[in-house]
Amino acid sequence: MSEGDGLRARLSAQALSVWAKHDKDNGGWLPLWCHMHDSAAVAGLLWDCWLPARVRALVGRVLPEGEVDGRRLAVWLAGVHDIGKATPAFACQVEVLADRMRAAGLEMPSRRAVGADRRLAPHGLAGQVLLQEWLEEQRGWPGRVTGQFAVVVGGHHGVPPDHPSLRDLDGRWDLLRTPGGNEGVWRRVQGELLDACAAEFGVEGRLGEWRGVRLPQPVQVVLSGLVIMADWIASNEDLFPYFPAGSECGAGSGRAGAAWRDLDLPGSWRPVVPRDGVGELFASRFDLPAGAVVRPVQAAAVETARGMPEPGLLIVEAPMGEGKTEAALAAAEVLAARAGSGGVFFALPTMATSNAMFPRLLSWLDRLPAGDGDRLSVLLAHSKAALNKDAAELRAGSRKRIASVDVDGAVQTVSAGGEAAASAELVAHHWLVGRKKGMLSSFVVGTVDQLLFAGLRARHLVLRHLAVAGKTVVIDEAHAYDTYMNTYLDRVLGWLGAYGVPVVVLSATLPAARRRELAQAYAGAAGDDERFVPVEQAREYPLLTAVSRGAVPVLGRPAVSGRGYEVRVERLDDGLGVLADRLEAELAGGGCALVVRNTVGRVLETAKALRERFGPRAVTVAHSRFIDVDRAENDHRLLELFGRDAAVRPGRHIVVASQVAEQSLDVDFDLLVSDAAPVDLLLQRMGRLHRHAREGRPAVLRDAKCLVTGVDWSAAVPKPVRGSEFIYGRHALLRSLAVLLPFFDGGRPVDLPGDISALVQDVYGGGQVGPADWAPALEEARLVHEKLQAGKADRAEQFCIGEAGKDGRPLIGWLAGSVGDADDTRAGRAQVRDSEECVEVLVVEELGDGSLATVHWAGEGRGGLALPTDAVPSPEAARAAAACGLRLPVAMAKPHIVDRVVAELKQFSFEKWQTKENPWLAGQLILPIRPGCQTSLAGFRLMYTRENGLEVSNAR
DNA sequence: AAGAAAAAAAAA
């Protein structure tokens, strides 16, 4: 398509005089007509070379001439997005450029004369009003249908206008056209620009038909996102130089083509439905051990993905260790190909699990079929991704494939195994960085928060939506989220359904009611939709649930792979002496025990008592109150001692841990002692028991055994310790104990994974559980629980976007009451998790001479690096210090004390560190640990040791 | 009074 000098040729000198951009450093500027050209050209290139097929189809589906119309619409909207700059309210801002316009005949008052009223007419809003007026008056559209198109212009600064601001501007046409004799000139120029865009960008002949279109809100969103992306690229002065120098390179396709080559944005992934059988598919995509067989759940997931009427939501429920991750990736490849997704977003509950997933995704990408020269953009997305080694390597380009040129000159890539294989180059593209642009990378591994943000009313939300709309989404550990996060998740799923984004949800222990909620949210179904009753009633495990929009959900019931074992559960009275005695008896012949406590306080007091009994070397502590590097090292050491291939497994050892031992660590113990916890978590903990087949377990420990403690069992209704009740609530704890009653003390053993589903469903279902005399206590707990959950849901709604509105209803007011941008208030930050306030510090060491350094034991060359307080620390030292983050206990973040804590920490925020060249440390709170590990803060005495982590006592 | 783990932060 020719996008040459056409726009300029269509415009009068007056219209050509309108400016759009100005660089006050060098006086460079850009006329509006040129920025219109640039933006439109970039939008066309994005449409052709970057936008995933799914998004093109989504837009095309609602327009009379399909995707051809879709491209025209995107290009035209990008072309006109800054029309609001052709107003006195905008143009008066730069005197010298305003004078050019005045000389051409466009009169306007000075900036000062317009004054504060200028903010009534920000150029996005002004543009929307002008475009709506033009469609109505010049093209004869009914007023009510113009908003659905014009809101894309109105929202191009990240927030679609709301009704009050439209109303406020309505009475102020003087801001859009200088009143009096010159008004007609302004009107003509604005009309001229819009006429020229319509003609130049090929929509002149289309507007007649488009007035009958009702644009669904999801389409308005992705178009808004695309226009913003085009604007950001076209506003890059390096790519699109300002005038007068920039005028040399002409306008339109030549200028844009050169910029596009310089930008070098990787295109999106173009998946193809694999034709292989499931066995071949798994063998080619994953590095499986020799002789590995595809598990029934994996095969069923792929077959279901192939067979669903429309690619939609696939929920996979199966026990740990059934290869759900591989199943998800294989199913995602099929679904992505069917839906036309251009990438995958893999969402996990924590930064640690995201970090662990990242290299697995990279090696899967290496094995995906690819065409010559394909490049795929990849990103690790969470707040500390910058500290991750794999992500840093990718950024440094070290993962570039080693290309060898064979005789015919065809470039072949060499895979890690040495054999030649077509493989795409994986890149972390420089443009695709930052909070708002990163998600636009084709492949993203990140925390689920990054997905939930798609439900948060915040500026530039449309970019995040554009990013997810073009992907297939995998959500891991879907049971791990609370009511607050689930409110966001369900809302986001509704939008994903509307975009036709395929979603794979993974869970080991999903309550049936949640299963139904997820399915209905995605399908956009009403809460009482009868078709979803079977989804909630299904009791099989493993279980697949496939939901296509508008179709009846389909359930699949693959077999288990046959591995399984039994765990005997037993009640143990709470008390350190009781515990030590029992462990002494159980471990008399050696063996390794895991003791899981629900609070850090209990972990530390237990460890102290057990060290006295068994000696300091026989006891290890693990919880989250360690600095990041120590926490990682703790995990690493546990794997080394108790992992699958542990060569140095101790003869007799006890690990005392908080909930950190519950998740994602592939460790194996001979005996488990656990504080009472909700049954799904207790089952997770039991998963650390006899995980691997091992020779030579001591005879007494040959049967897997779990002792449940942390409860006063003598009470009429068992009474969990205080901390447990605070954390999990009496409701979940009591119901869990109730369903475990038949298993306790010589009852039948828990069958893993056979009993998992029934136990979870009984606890989280509404049915009667427990003996009759527990009933009043259970009922009371239920009421408290329901009130608490309702409160969480209410709080979540406060900043959660609504469901997609009726087709054709403009996005006006979509983000009204948003959390805003660059939000520095404490309340404005953590919005997708319902968390209490918390204080995070970077721990550094104060040396004998009073100087600061990174903690000496940090390892990997990070320890003992000097941190001068009167200068900017070296990048290495700063980065090492940033890897020593520590969250202070919530007690120190309570409202009455937090200000004092922060104020006292501020004495260590050194002025020289607060600079842009020091991104690792600027704005961080620093906690120096004095020699002897002690320090005091806001009346608390703090002690940090490598053995126990942070210990806090109240000195007052 | 105090009690888990978890996440998070620049635009045109």
Strand-residue proportion: 5-15%
Query: For the terminal residues, how far apart are their CA atoms?
Result: 76 Å
Radius of gyration (Å): 31 Å
Helix content: 25-40%
The whole-number mean of residue pLDDT values reads 90
Determine the number of helices (DSSP H or I, runs of at least 4 residues): 36
Q: What is the global morphology? A: globular
The SS-based structural class is alpha/beta
Could you characterize what this model shows?
The strands form seven sheets. Strands 8-5-9-4-10-11-3-12-13 form a nine-stranded mixed sheet, sandwiched between helices. Strands 16-17-15-18-19-14-22 form a seven-stranded mixed sheet, with helices on both faces. Strands 23, 24, 25 and 26 form a four-stranded mixed sheet that branches. Strand 12 and strand 13 (554-556) form a beta hairpin. It contains 36 helices and 29 strands. It has 956 residues and is an alpha/beta fold. The model is unreliable at 400-420 and 822-827 (pLDDT under 50). Helices cover 40% and strands 13% of the residues. Helix 10 packs parallel to helix 14. It binds one DNA strand of 12 nucleotides through residues 21, 156-158, 228, 231-236, 349-352, 382-384, 434-437, 447-450, 460, 480, 598-602, 623-624, 658-660, 662-663, 721-728, 821-824, 829-833, 835, 838, 840, 887, 889-891, 894, 923, 954.
